[in-house]
Design brief:
The complex is a heterodimer of chains A (109) and B (113).
Chain A (H helix, E strand, L loop, with lengths): L2 E3 L3 E5 L4 E8 L6 E6 L6 E6 L3 E5 L2 E6 L4 E6 L8 E8 L5 E3 L3 E6 L1
Parallel strand pairs in A: 2-11
Antiparallel strand pairs in A: 1-3, 3-8, 4-5, 4-9, 6-7, 7-8, 9-10, 9-11
Chain B lengths: L3 E4 L2 E4 L5 E7 L5 E8 L3 E8 L6 E2 L6 E3 L9 E3 L8 E8 L8 E2 L3 E5 L1
Classes of the chains: A mainly beta (109), B mainly beta (113).
Amino acid sequence: GQNIDQPTEMTATEGAIVQINCTYQTSGFNGLFWYQQHAGEAPTFLSYNVLDGLEEKGRFSSFLSRSKGYSYLLLKELQMKDSASYLCAVRDGDYKLSFGAGTTVTVRA
Amino acid sequence: TAGITQAPTSQILAAGRSMTLRCTQDMRHNAMYWYRQDLGLGLRLIHYSNTAGTTGKGEVPDGYSVSRANTDDFPLTLASAVPSQTSVYFCASSGGPDTGELFFGEGSRLTVL
């Protein structure tokens, strides 16, 4: 199985930047994903990294270091609507996707 | 665009009863998955299917069975429900191993008493 760790909760101010870290141990690696999940809703896809480096998509960026088993999701110019749970997920050698427990981000005015 | 449809949205079930959660997708995706989500534990994979006619066990398969008779449908059956199966169940699909993104249904909230 997979071992995926991310912080449980983070709080930040509207307009600020927050970085959510994710570390993982996996048998085989075929990509790391970040999903956003608002309370009571289904997860939605945010980003995908399979090679080392930074992927930028608007206010969201995701970084991957395969040698360190490490990723982060960077949320810039935080808005109130960004209050949600952010899920780190790793696809293993069998192409199964396993999720971390999620990081709840609260954005305060 | 429907995407993935799950039914029922919510269900209360007596322990010992059987239940089938339905999942249908209209995107012609090859791969489909069932996850359960519990507070503090995140999403855990129950069963998956990489293509019609094949299924595999995930992290927490005990007490659940699936079938994949065609591309569109992937039902999840609880043969004899127990209270520990109280959870929110999400069905998801993806285009296959070369594509990453999972598309999720809206979830089915099951309470076993």
